[in-house]
Structure formats: structure tokens, C-alpha cells
Amino acid sequence: MQENAIGSLIGSLVDNRYQVKSRLARGGMSTVYVATDQRLDRDVALKVLHPHLANDGNFLDRLAREARAAAKLSHPHVVGVLDQGHDGDTAYLVMEYIKGHTLRDVINSKGALSPRLALALIDPVVEGLGAAHAAGMIHRDVKPENVLIADDGRIKIGDFGLARAVTTTTSTGALIGTVAYLSPELVLGKPADARSDIYSTGIMLFEMLTGRQPFDGEVPIQVAYQHVNSTVGPPSALVPGLADEVDELVQWCTASDPEQRPVDGNALLAELRHIRTNLTDSELDLQPPAAVRAAAAAGGASATASHGLRGAAAPPAPARKPSHLPQNPPGPGAAAVQGIPPVQGSPGNHTEVLSPIHGGEVPRGRPTEVISRASNPTTVFSAPTSSNPASSNPTSSNPASSTPVSSTNVSSTSRPVLPPYGFDDDDRDDAQLPLSKREQRKLDRHEEKARSRAAATPVRTLREGNPRRRGALWIVVMVILALLATGAGWFFGMGPGSPGTVPSVANRTVAEAQKLLRDAGFQSSTQDVFDDDVKAGLVVASEPGAGTEIRKYQQVSLFVSKGPQLFPLPRLTGKTLEASKEALNGAEMALGKVTEKFDEEVPAGTVLSQAPAPGTPARHGTPVSLTVSKGPQPIPVPDVRGQDEEEAVHAIEAAGLKAEVADETVHDRNVPKGAVVSQEPASGTLTRGQTVTLTISEGPKLVKVPNYIGKQVEDATEALRKRGFEVRVNEVLGGFFGTVRDQDPVDTEVPEGSVITLTVV
User: What are the backbone dihedrals phi and psi of residue 86, each rounded to the nearest 5 degrees, phi first?
Assistant: First the structure.
């Protein structure tokens, strides 16, 4: 029913703004659609959350804050968050639509990449992470599926903030992440920081250089175990000839101790670009061996899902001693040390639930979530519950949970786990191979500290032991422990460590909110944020949210509204209408009413004015009205033919046009001398100031009348008509002979077209 409900969004209008066109992808947390923002007339990526998340009010509050934080991050290598909302039962995020493919598609199609290509692809990812880290944001789920490559070559990293929102909402002991890229501290339930993203980036770079991930396992718990207990080996173990600087870069990023990694993305970016600049062309263009490329190509889709090469031959031995991790997951003893008990699982896609990680408790009755994706799934690690003793007690009555996973009890058809391309911590001291410069410096520092401690430690006690003194000492110790236990009981029962429920402080003044928190026993701090809905000076929300039960010594953060975030409107005057639309889209403003107006100087289609004015602070989505030029106003050409020259010129100039009299005049039998014979143009429209040319008449032309007396009337008539005269015949005595007896006028010049009278006898 959920799938049908989600699929039914195609063709629908979400929040009266986003027209859903097609579905891009579906994951365990959401479904992503291509939609058209009808207000700004552009395509966007619409991420619609699944109902189990959309119906959680606490999650929606958290997601709104994370979305606001992500929206503030504007960087060319980070997918922009444009909007967030809730339309009925549909909770959604609106993000920049990147038409193209993902880094996972590149790895699947090409396998192992050359160092030049791998470093060029990872550079914008690290730059985007550096900008996010500088803004105080952590990604928490860096992986090839979240690296988007546009068709025009732009590279961006997406899904900021969503992993944190889901992590906070799922349970007090849950963690969102893709097991192949999880840092050791996240596996152990420690807080994430920028160095956790660096670790995931290092794993991703290892995979780009070798075509596979450094750790492999039949079930996700095996991979998570290796992240905690093993060290990522050099990629040159799979790609011989790889530069030492590249090996050291990967191992620097994937150090088990966060203190040994780059502090954030900007620190890594500086080192990455230094290495790219100093490597030779031959080192940058090194091609992986054919065997590595073939194994990567054969592993393609299936290896991606299982974090390893399934069914491939054993890879070449790494440069340092490889880890000999047993095929079954750690037994109960090892699990207790690391906080990861054995889990019954099955081979295949890493979409199962792993428990526990944090060692906390999941609220009763809350289902454990499984988040899966087509390739590297984002997995929910969940803490054990009291109702599921099998997940925390290896001696449970459930046979499936009491037996550790091994090659004999997973499946008769499952393959043995290949050794990962890494080192167990126990094996690292046995490697007698040359160390890198960074490892040598680290080893020298450890040896110097060890010598200092040895010099400061006495080799012999100065006083012999006394059984009575030892007994008194034990009594003192027990008394101190009893006092500590009593103090701890008071601290956690009635003192600052006692639990309390965070009150609701939304839409209250800061003073009112702080008083409510003090009355409930909490200390608070404030942080200013922009908010479109809450008036400036009032509290938007708190962290942890209202209704959350925490210890009273934990501080509560108050998010205080600064009002809506305002942005200056762009200057559109002088731009074309199309360029103005693009500028408004770029500034995330809306196009308001468009009015057209004639203008004698500004070309048609150019913006004459805008309202509000340029530079006016406004919210995103504010409509901007435009007045656009229609060009010069057309003027009908007056018809002045037959009018006197002076009258014609006056009529044309009165219409706003310019009259020009042609130098040459013409004879016209119908138009008197001095009047307009013709004009150009004679009709239609012109714009103000354009010219109308007038031709003036000289009157009719004078033609000499020949003498046709004594000629036959027919010949005389024809000749006169050819000269342009009209002929009138008067017959005397019936005109019997047909001879012209008289002619009027004769032998003189008369106007063309005059009447010539012939008298015929």
C-alpha cells in the first residue's frame, strides 16, 4: 500500500506548487521525484519521506531545522536545499535537480580508476565537505551514491542533514549510515564530527583507486567489526606502482584514531591538491593491472552490494601483513570488548539490522527500522531491547542467537569471507616492512614517550607491604566507594543528573523560555536563526525538542528567530524579459505581473522598471512586477495627395512624422501645379520622427497641336489621340467627303489632354 501511495504522486501537485513528473529513485527513507516548481518555472528534485517518518512530529521538527541549516550552505559542490514542507500526509524536501549520474555509476562502469581521475573526482567532494565543516555541518553518510555528477561535468555532494534527522528520531541508540563507509567511532556509538566524514571519504578514495572496498563480509556486522579492529591497508597492495603519497593520503584519512586524521575537509583539501600538483604524469596516469580491472568489472553490481569481490580469485598479497580475520564474526568475548555482540545473518545485500552499537535501550513497542538502497544501503544500527534478549545475551534460549555466525552456520552455499585489504591491530606489530615517513615519525614519538615514562617510574618499592595497613586501606576504599555511590544516587535521582522533560517553549520570548527551563531544572543557551513563520525575538524551537526526557545537567539550546531571511532583489532594468526571468530564478524570486508600455527610445522586450526596486530586501519567492517596453508607438501615415505642398507638409509634421519634398517635379494632367502628386509611403504606419517623401506636380504638360486641315478625319483623329488630346468632330453637310475643313486650335501649344475640334465636310 505504501508503494501504491507513493507511486500515485506522479502527476499530482504537492503543496499547490510542485507538479510531480516522474520518479527518479526509491530508498528506505524516501522516494525521489522530478517535479516542476510552478512558481519559479524550473525542475527540482522532490524527496518525499515514507509514512513511518512523515507521521513522526518530532522528526518533522528536527528535519525542518536540519533543512534550514542545509539551505544556508551555498556552495558549487553541494546540492542546494531549496524548500521543505508538509502537505497533508506528505512530508517533503525540495533540492536542486542534478541531471546526470552518480560516482557509484562511474565505479561500476570503469572499476579501478587512474590516480589522476580518482583525485580529480574526489577534489570537489572534499571542497564541498570543507565548506560544510566550516559552517558547522557534518554529513554522516558520505558514499559514492551521494556524489552526483551532472551531464555538464559539475560534481556535487547531496543529502546533508537527513542522516542526522533520522538518527535523532529513530531511537536513543540508533545510527544511520552505510556500513562500508562507517568510521570506527560511529560504529562504537561515539559522537560524529568532521573527521568521521574524512574517514568515509578515505574509504571512498580507496574504492576508486582499487575498484573495491577495503573491508568485506557476509553480513554487515563483520564489516563494522573490521572498521573497529582493523586498519585500512595501502591501495598499492592492489595497484602496484601507486605513488607513496597516494598511499599515505588514503591511510591518513582512514586512521582508526580520529586524532590522527585531517581535522576537516579544508585540511584534507590542501594536502590533496599539494599531492596532485607534485605527482608526475606517469604516477597520475598509472593504470591498474588488468587483473584488478577484470576483478572490479566482474564484481560490478554484486560486489557493490556485498562490499567485496564475490567469487573472484584471491587478490595479490598487500605490501604489509594482511589481516587474518576469521570467517565467523567475533565471539562473545571479543564482542563484549568492542560492544558488538555476535549476530545471526545471511549473505547478500547489507540491508539487515545490526544490534547493539550504542548499548542504550530502544523504547518499548517501537519497531526496528531497516533502511536499504539498491547499491550501498544506508543501514540502521539499533541498540538491543529488553524484549529481545537474544540480541544481547549470547546464552539465550534461542539457538539462532546463541551460536556465533560462522562459515558452517550461515548457509551451506555462502562463500567464505575474503580477507580484507587491511591490518588487524594485533598483526601490525609483526610487519617488518619499511614504514612511511608519517608512520616513522609517529613511532619515534611513541618511543620517546615510553622512555620518559620508564625514566620517571621507580624500579623498586621503598616500603615493604603490611597486611594490617592493606586492610585499613581497603576499608577506606570501601567507605569512599559507598560515599561515591550515595552521591551518585543523589546526583542521578534528585540532583542535576536526575531526568526531566523539556517543556514546550515555541513562540515564547527568550525570557519566558529561559524561566520555564530554569523552573524545570535545565540550563539553556541561545542561538539566532532565520525563520519565515516565527516573529523575530520569539523562540522557534529547542534542542532537544519539547517532550524529550534528558538529564538536568544537559544544556538545552534555544533557537531564537531573527525573522525571515531577506535577500536584495537583483537589478532587472535594462535587461531583456528572458534575462530577467533567469535572474529571478537565480535569486530564487518569483516573476510578478508583466506590463507592456510603448517607449520611443528603449527597444521592445527590454525591462523599463521593476517593483519592488533593485536592492530591496525581500524573502525568497517574493514576486517582482516588471514594466516591459513595446518599442516606439506606431503612427498612421496621413494621405496628403492632391493637397497643396504647404498644407501637406503641415499635416505630416502634425502627426509626428518628418516631411521631405523630392527635388524632381512631375507633370500631371489631373493634379494642378504645386499640389502633391504622390507620397512614399502612401499608407501604413511609421514611428515618430520617420520620413514621408512628397512629389509635387508641375501641372499638365504643354503639347504642340499639328495642322491636320485637308487630311482625312480618321488619320487626323488617330494622330491627335496618340499625342494625348481628346478629339471632337463636327460634320458639315453630313461629312460626305471625310476631309478636315477646319481645326481648332491649330499650330499652337496647349495642355496635354486638351480637346481638339475638327470640322469635316
Answer: -145, 115
Distances (CA, A) of 649 to 636, 686, 695, 696: 15, 16, 11, 11
Give the three-class secondary structure for 514: helix
C-alpha cell at 478: 570501601
Ramachandran quadrant class, 223 (left: phi over 0; alpha: psi -120 to 50; beta: rest): alpha
Q: Does 405 have pLDDT greater than 50?
A: no
Three-state DSSP at 638 gives coil
Q: Output the pTM of the full model.
A: 0.45
Catalytic residue (choose from 141, 197, 424, 531): 141
User: Beta strand pairing status for 524-529 and 556-561?
Assistant: parallel
2-96 and 499-561: same fold? Answer: no
Going edge to edge, which strands form the sheet with 740-744? 726-731, 755-760, 740-744
Domain over 567-629 is classified CATH 3.30.70.100 = no
Is the Cβ–Cβ distance between 716 and 759 less than 8 Å? no
Q: Is 455 helix (H, G, I), strand (E, B) or coil?
A: helix
CATH number of 634-696: 3.30.10.20
- Residue 141 known to be catalytic: yes
Residue 164 to residue 684: CA distance in whole angstroms: 70
Q: Please name the CATH architecture into which domain 499-561 falls.
A: 2-Layer Sandwich (3.30)
CATH (one of 3.90.1150.10, 3.20.20.140, 3.40.50.800, 3.30.10.20) for 702-760: 3.30.10.20
Say whether 214 sits in a helix, a strand or coil.
coil
Q: Which of 404, 234, 435, 287 is nearest to 335 (CA)?
A: 404
pLDDT tens profile 236-287: 999 999 999 999 999 999 999 999 999 999 999 999 999 999 999 999 999 9
Q: What angle do CA 489, 494, 498 make, to 5 degrees?
A: 85
